[in-house]
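Supplementary Note 3. Input sequence used for the single-chain structure prediction.
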Amino acid sequence: QAAKNTDKYWASIASQYHWFKKWRKVLEWKEPHAKWFVGGKTNICHNALDVHSTTWRRNKAAIIWEGEPGDQRTITYAQLHIEVCKLANAMKKRGVTKGDTVAIYMGMVPEAAIAMLACARIGAPHNVIFGGFSAEALKERINDSKAKLVICCDGAFRRGQKINLKNAVDAALNETPTVDNVIVFQRTKDDVQMVEGRDHWWHELMSLAAK
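The predicted structure, written as discrete structure tokens, is reproduced below.
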């Protein structure tokens, strides 16, 4: 179907999602560049969460998670929506606006997904950086993307050991002039250095953030 009539096929797929403003043209192809749904306006976070807030899916599991030490959590769509909205508002309070890049340097925790969705919600491109990368690699990726905010964990569990992610962030930020703020999620709860004015605990910001 897509090969027979590309525009018709992808218009039918896109119509299954919520659009704040419908596109005027499905595809604008000027080789080698392509623009899809020209003139349209939507939000991936809205389609992932908000559309379910008044449906049967509201209280269904959005995330079922088990951490390496064996801890388990289940987060419903309604609960995830609240957490994402709170983090999005917390980031805006820290000066993040549409178009600002956010670097995400976390372990495998639900908060990583919450961070990505919160970025999408406010139109901030996110740069996910593998938690196993060194401070030098982290620095390069932060500078390449000109990230304004870093979201990280204090540490992560990997193969039975704890990895201190915050130490790598501190080392990287010695040479990252674009970063104004760091949000730190407590995962391992090990002692880490918090720079006054720059570093903020995730749980403290979330406790004050609007839903």
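The chain is about 35% helix and 25% strand. The radius of gyration is 19 Å.
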